[in-house]
Amino acid sequence: MGTPQTTEPRAASELLTERELSKLHWRCRRGLLENDLFIEQFFSRFEPELTVWHAQGLTALMDLTDNDLLDLLLRRREPEGALQTPDVLEVLRMLREGGAVHATRAN
Questions:
Q1: pLDDT digits (tens, 9 = 90+) for 67-79
Q2: Radius of gyration for the chain, computed over Cα atoms and rounded to the nearest angstrom
């Protein structure tokens, strides 16, 4: 017989596996170049330290339309309702921080 499979949820602080990171990269593909630039910088800067908790926040943001996501990234508006969770707010802060670094380098 094989090894028993556990069905317990993973700890939020657990780092993502290589496979999970690959899936997350795929999930983050966007239709707007501007969003892709923020996301590219995010992964360049934070990928080694991303946890299950970060992935949950990022996945919630990726459920938004491209224009709604861009509005959040550019601080045209702030998260409301179901998006006002600690994981979403932290990932949004990280995305904005990475985008700010990219914008500074472009100047």
A1: 999 999 999 999 9
A2: 15
